[in-house]
Amino acid sequence: MRPQTYVSKRSAATSTGTWSRNFNTVRHTQKNLGPIAYAGMIGAIVLMFGLIYVSQSTRATGYDYELSAIESEISELTAKKEDLAVEKARLTSIAASENSEVASSMETASASGYVAE
Questions:
Q1: Higher pLDDT pick, 89 / 106
Q2: Cβ-count burial of 13 within 10 angstroms (0-12 exposed, 13-18 middle, 19+ buried)?
Q3: What are phi and psi of 28, to 5 degrees?
Q4: Could you tell me where the beta strands, DSSP code E, fall in 22-89?
């Protein structure tokens, strides 16, 4: 028979300090994102900001169209108001001239004939 010598794995493991009982001996490395993943993330962020910018600019354009429609309506109503003011002045002047003393002393006009050549 051979002489047997017992080597304790535990004593050898404890001397290095890395191996101990009831602990996992697997080391996990931290997973990092690769350059393609970073490029994809940056592209998604740029796309998201682009969509936000476009949506805000179209909203501003919509307000611009609404504002121009309101301004055109205001200009039409202002023109109507000026026409009505002229019509009011004309009607008031006709009523005032019919009731004046000068107009009452005038003779009524009769139809005159045409001059023959």
A1: 89
A2: middle
A3: -100, 135
A4: none
